[in-house]
Every structure is written in structure tokens, then in C-alpha cells.
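Do me a favour: review this protein, sequence plus C-alpha cells, and tell me how the chain folds. Record follows.
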Amino acid sequence: MKDIETGDLESLWRVRSETHREAAATADHLRVVMSHSLFVFLGNIAACSTLSAGLWKQVPQGLLLAWMGVMVLFSTVRWLIGRGFPQGPLSSTETRYWERRFILSVAVSGALWGVAGGLFFVSDHRDSNLYLALHIVSMCAAAAATLSYHRIAYPVFLLPAIVPITVNMIWDGVSTSKIMGFVLPFYFTLLYMLSREIYQTAHESFLARINSQYLAMFDYLTGVTNRRAFEETMEREWYRAMRERRMLALVIADIDNFKLCNDTYGHQMGDRMLKKVATLLEKRIRRGADLVARIGGEEFALILPDTDLSGAVALAESIRQDMRVSASRESDETPKLTMSFGVASLLPEASLDPGILFRRADAAVYEAKRKGRDRVEFRSD
């Protein structure tokens, strides 16, 4: 990813979008591994039960029962946590929270199997040690099918699970155990390489789907979000503001005399002006929750959560002034563009139609046009 120079807003937009897409892909990875929680639970219960049955006469039974009890309790808690994974989209904060919980549970699971490889290894007992080693190997192989959907989950599980049994096998006096102990690292390395291939394939698949969704939400010419993204965001922010009892503001900005600009200077100049306006609007957005969208040919919108009318009007007025300053610096061969703004802000309520904010802002920009353009009008009723 290239470095972002100061003021390089196109690069900043691309990087920000890529960051969002990566976060969305991480959430998809988590969703897959969490969906396997029931199978992981049943697999752990079956594995620890058969291991305990096979070693019942070779190791202290109290120690074996204690380990099995901890494993059953942990597996049950892990399964219940997995069932609580949210079904809808995750924010970046939620993704990080669930990722930390998942990685911690994977590390504990690997450590518990590592404890089995250390506690239940009986020196010079070839058959029981091979039985123990094969169980741990089987668990590591089975884990590759599920944990590989996360970028680091499999090695977090694998390392603590295999180190004790591998060391014990190498240091055992039985030659068969020694040979297996030296072979195990190569086998586990192959499993790890396989897990990386699984992860990479899944990640590319998730990103391809997410990229197609993102591309459908952005305006190709200007790089800002399009009408579809505007409408979806507007609906989401309306209900969020209603839940949190916060103000929601909308600014509609319309380029004055844009058709005349196209007719006089050509469509290439018109496209340049649209990109310029989009860049200017993006530059004035300071918060991650704010959104700039191109909602028509020469019409843009700014969604401003948690913003009252005075704040939205002040922002619109500052953008209008910036546009005038920018126009004054243009050469005579470049059109001197101005913009008209319509502003509305309210506290969303269940009794209100969600479309009322747009209608008010649209009426305000129409009023600005009627009064001579290059001005800011607002609706407070």
C-alpha cells in the first residue's frame, strides 16, 4: 500500500476503503469459525472421552478425570460463547472484541491438549504414548479444517498443543517414540502450510465478494458514495439516531448552472468540476460517521450524525466560502462554479417518516436556487 501524501485525498479514500474491506473480511472469517462451534464442542468431547478411556489404566485416574472435567467445562463455555456471536454486520470495535475472545479460547484449547501431552505421557510405555500422540495429532489435523479460516488461530492452537508431546517423544527411551517425535514437527509444518492455503483461498473469496459490494456503493467518476449507499446509510443513521436520541442533519449541495458549464466548456470540464467538488466535500468531513454522496448529476449530500441545525448550517456556509475562494483562483478558461445548499436537522422519532429529513433539505436547496443561488438555506420546521 503506497504512502499517503498530505492532501492526497484520492489515496486517502482508497486506503480507507481498503481498511474497511479488510475489517469486513475479518468479520466474515470470524463468522465462519464461530459457526463451527457446535462441531468443535462435539469433537472435543468425543476426543477427550476416547483419550480418557484409552489411558484409564495407564495414568492416575483422578488426574485424568480432572483434566476431562476442565476440558468439558471449557468446551461448553466456548460453545455457548460461539452461539452468542452477532448475526448482523459488525463494527470494527465489535470485530476486534470478538477476535480477541476467539483467539484466547483457541489458545486455551491448544494449551489443554498440550497439558494432556505432558501429564499423560508415561516414559517407556510405547503403546499408551503412541495412543496419546495420535489423539493429539488427530485433533491438530481436525483443527486445520476450522481454525484455518482465521489468519493466526491455527498456529495459536497448534504450538501449545504439540510442543509437550513432541518433546516427550524425542526424549523417550523407546526408539519408536524418538522417531515419531522427530517426524512430528515436519507433519505439523505441513498442516500449518495447508492451513495458510485454506486461509488465503477463503480470504480472497471474502474480499472478492466484499469488493463487488463496495464497488456497487461508490460513484465511479468522483469516488464518493453513490445514491444507493446514501439511501442505505440514511436509513441506518435515522434509526440509530432514534435509538440513541441524537440529532441527525442532512446537507444537500447543488452546483449552480452546471448544465451551462457543460454546454460551454464541454463534458470533460464538467467531469473535472464534479471531481473537484467531491474532493472539496471530502476534505471538510472530519468524522468517520459522516458521509459524502453523489445523489444526482450535479447534486451531492452530506449525512451528519449527531449534528444540530446550527452546526450543519455553519459547515455548509464554510464549504460555500471555500468554493468561492477556489473559484477566484481559477484561470479565465475555467468556469467559476458556485454551490447552493439546503440544510435540515431534527431529532428522529418513531412518529416521523424517515424521508422527512431529505424532503426538508431538498426544499431548502430549492429555496436557495430560487433566491439567487450561491447561498445556504435551511428548514427548521
User: Anything to note?
Assistant: Confidence is low (pLDDT under 50) at residues 1-16. Residues 227-379 form a domain with the Alpha-Beta Plaits fold (CATH 3.30.70.270).
